Automatic annotation (TrEMBL):
Lineage: Bacteria, Pseudomonadati, Myxococcota, Polyangia, Nannocystales
Keyword tags: TPR repeat
Protein name per its UniProtKB record: Tetratricopeptide repeat-containing protein
Pfam families, alphabetized: DUF4388 (PF14332), TPR_14 (PF13428)
Each TPR repeat, start to end: 194-227
Residue ranges occupied by any PatA-like N-terminal domain in the UniProt entry: 16-111
Species name: Nannocystis exedens
Calcium among keywords: no
Keyword Protein transport: no
Entry-linked InterPro entries: PatA-like_N, TPR-like_helical_dom_sf, TPR_rpt
Amino acid sequence: MEPIRALRPRSTELLRGDLRDVSLVSLLQLAQVEAISGWLRVEGRGEITLLKGHVGGVACGRLSGVEALRELAFHDRGRFVLARGEPAGDRCGDNVTFALMDAYRLRDEWKRLADAVLRRVDDRPWKPTGGPFDPIVLELDGHRTLAELVDPALGIVTLVIDAALDALRLGLVERVPDAQRRPPPRAVVDSEDFDDLVDRGRALARRGDYDAAESLLRRALARRPDDRAVQQNLRALARRRAAAGPDAEEFR
């Protein structure tokens, strides 16, 4: 989490606190009642420009506009600063009410999805879409929950929720019943060296041999299930496939 940045030039801090105590929706209502022009910044996530109480530009990570506002409203904790000033621009945002209402919908969906363990359907191979769910699909391992696979710091939780719901609806992934969930794999001790598996997997990925690279990296992950470097390499592998577009080689 990055610290809250210094206030913009010619701005006056009005309120500082935590979204656990006052919601983002309440802050926007306050800004509207008081016709505040300035900025509402949420630490480590993003910023909303306010134009006489109305929402202007919104940024949250790589998201902007309605998607960014929805992501900011989805999270119910985080430090914020509300400041008065003279922001650039004079255009108010569109679909503000939709974004806020949809954030509440996604909170309810997340309550049902967060603890779900998903797996790919064998006869329905996943084709990369270029979206944020691609690298997560690669890590559906039968024992980790969706919440364990989604990094909230990336600012794309809401996009992942909708993508996961679509994948479930289309039958591309399915929930693992409690009785079939596998415990986390124990570290395997055999003749294969962990570092060698990782190095060979990276080399194969650079050459474009994604199936062999995934196999080696997953064998490395079985030896050290909590190794963040291997997890990141698997995500990077998924992004490489996604970058090739929907016509890229399917992975299973």
